[in-house]
Design goal:
- This protein has a 7-stranded parallel β-sheet with strand order 3-2-1-4-5-6-7, covered by helices on one side.
- The protein is globular, with a radius of gyration of 25 Å.
- The protein is built from 23 helices and 13 strands.
- By secondary structure, the protein is of the alpha/beta class.
- α1 packs parallel to α3 and α7 packs antiparallel against α8.
- The protein has 4 domains: 54 residues; 109 residues, Alpha Horseshoe (Serine Threonine Protein Phosphatase 5, Tetratricopeptide repeat); 160 residues, Rossmann fold, CATH 3.40.50.11380; 174 residues, Glycogen Phosphorylase B (Rossmann fold).
Length: 558
């Protein structure tokens, strides 16, 4: 065995046995003996993090760079050209990004920027590549630079807003940044609300705005709503980018606005005499918040996709579930928070069948999380590491298309190794669909919800297949999104109040395969009875909210 390999083995053993000082010494020796190679750098980063050395972050970045260049060479890329030809670096970056390799792509995009290709689109590419690795602060720095380079571009500023979901103190930082966005882009176009016609003797006219309604994740929330709207009391309009021929039960009027400028879309919506206009997209890429800034309807509310404040003074309400409300939440919103019970949106699951707890056959527990790596915070890594160490022989399956990236996978392993987790206990999977996707749920005993940026649709998809989910009741409304879903499925015992409680409850649930199977059976039954599965009930709840908001805003017209 070569000397550097011996040092790496000693480093690994030292980290796994709780000897971080020894690990740091041997990792440094390995780097000195094999300069310019990635593996010693990854282990040094783990050892430095275990010793709370602030140099760990830079060492991990050095490892990513070294590893990323090796991957680029392996696919036939010319590493020398990357450092001198910005256009070539961009081409390689896009090739890697499109192949679901964001960590490798960020190496190429970063070199492109250094080589002078620092135009806005290059910065967007670099920022997104950082974000999808879970490097939220670095992504935010890039998007802030983009904002400064394009002060008059509303979409450019929105990239910065979205990245704030994943950073430390993200809720407070987002609230401040959203207000700044609105001050810049809403102030010049803000107009007073036009009073609606009296409601007596007619239907309330409700419009929904989003790029698309019948595909992607939004379909599972919008379809049950649109199929159950009471067409005798409500007239429904959809404003997507393109025409939609889906046969919705409510037979809404569909008005494509993708080709319209904001002023033109506002004119169309006012022509339709919409009473309550619902933003279902927020500041996510493709949003049309400029329409709301121009006060297209007498009552305007944000709901569903974005969760956080839009920052707009013209947005009257933000619709949220009662269960996620927290003290001081109102101060984070420019909108009036309008709470609803029992849940703020219905969910229609795709067909699924239950599967037995895999530990019944294997004898060992497999935890899993199918979240975007952007949500894999240091807090979550630390908490999940404690859980793995508490449950002997357990493994963690991390599944998302970006985990196909070998650099992202290895860097993630390094983050867990800093907490004493053996790399052999981590399993990575990329994208799958159909039966392969269904079988992935059959391979996990308990799904882990991250914090402070929790899952949403991924949580529901696990529950829909009978996979129990443990979630954290975090300190902010945003960190509590999973609470309404897990409690709604009849699993209040899987809602943890802090990380100690999280680890204890997950470890207790994983105590033996029989108890995991019983929990799995209870999850399957609970999901079928969940409040968000009662499509008609949730639709009626939202309809009453729309009427309530209309009356609150325009009491003389209600």
């Amino acid at each position: 065995m070569a000397a550097p390999e011996q040092d790496l083995l000693r480093t690994r053993n030292a980290l796994l046995t709780g000897k971080p000082a020894v690990a740091l010494h041997t990792a440094k020796a390995a780097v000195a003996k094999a300069p310019g190679t990635a593996e010693p750098l990854y282990w040094l980063a783990s050892a430095q993090a275990a010793n709370r050395d602030p140099a760990a972050a830079q060492t991990l970045n050095d490892a990513r760079l070294t590893h990323g260049l090796a991957v680029i060479r392996a696919i036939g890329g010319d590493a020398k050209r990357l450092t001198t030809e910005g256009e070539y670096a961009l081409q390689i970056g896009h090739r890697l990004y499109n192949a679901n390799y964001p960590a490798c792509a960020s190496v190429a995009f970063g070199l492109a920027v250094i080589a002078g290709r620092d135009e806005p689109q290059s910065l967007v590419s670099l920022g997104l590549a950082f974000l999808h690795q879970g490097r939220a602060e670095e992504a935010n720095n890039i998007f802030r630079a983009l904002s400064e380079a394009m002060p008059d571009s509303a979409p450019a500023q929105q990239f910065e807003l979205y990245s704030l979901f994943m950073v430390q103190d993200g809720v407070a930082r987002h609230a401040q940044a959203a207000r700044a966005w609105a001050e810049r882009f809403e102030t010049p176009v803000l107009t007073p609300a036009l009073p609606p016609a009296p409601l007596a003797g007619r239907r309330l006219r409700v419009g929904y705005v989003a790029p698309v309604f019948s595909s992607g994740q939004i379909r599972q929330f919008m379809a049950p709503l649109l199929d159950h709207h009471d067409t005798e009391r409500f007239e429904i309009f959809l404003y997507p980018n393109e025409a939609d021929t889906t046969d919705w039960g409510a037979a809404p009027t569909v008005r494509p606005i993708g080709a319209l400028k904001d002023d033109e879309a506002v004119a169309l919506i006012r022509q339709d005499q919409i009473d309550v206009l619902i933003d279902a997209w927020g500041h996510t890429s493709g949003s049309r918040l400029g329409i709301f800034a121009r006060r297209a309807a007498p009552v305007q509310a944000t709901w569903l996709n974005y969760q956080q404040t839009t920052g707009l003074r013209a947005m009257d309400f933000a619709i949220h579930s009662q269960s996620i409300l927290t003290p001081g939440m109102e101060a984070l919103f420019t909108e009036t928070v309008w709470p609803v019970e029992p849940i703020s949106a219905p969910f229609r699951a795709d067909p699924a069948t239950p599967s037995p707890a895999p530990s019944l056959a294997s004898g060992s527990v497999t935890f899993g999380s199918f979240i975007n790596p952007s949500k894999l915070s240091d807090e979550a890594v630390a908490g999940w590491s404690r859980l793995l160490l508490a449950v002997a022989g357990s493994r963690l399956l991390l599944k998302y298309r970006y985990f196909e990236d070998p650099v992202l996978a290895r860097a993630t392993t390094a983050r867990f190794a800093a907490h004493g987790v053996d790399p052999d206990r981590l399993v990575y999977e990329g994208h799958s669909q159909g039966d392969d996707y269904e079988q992935a749920f059959a391979r996990i005993d308990l799904s882990l919800d991250p914090s402070p940026c929790p899952g949403g649709t991924t949580t529901l998809e696990a529950l829909a297949r009978g996979v129990p989910v443990i979630t954290l009741r975090g300190p902010t409304f945003y960190s509590r999104i999973g609470v309404q879903l897990v409690e709604g499925a009849g699993l209040p015992d899987l809602v943890a109040d802090n990380w100690d409680d999280y680890v204890a409850k997950a470890a207790a649930a994983a105590a033996d395969p029989a108890s995991l199977q019983a929990l799995r059976d209870r999850t399957w039954e609970g999901f079928a009875k969940a409040s968000f599965r009662d499509e008609a009930l949730v639709t009626r709840t939202l309809e009453e909210a729309y009427l309530g908001m209309f009356a609150a805003k325009w009491p003389d017209q209600a």
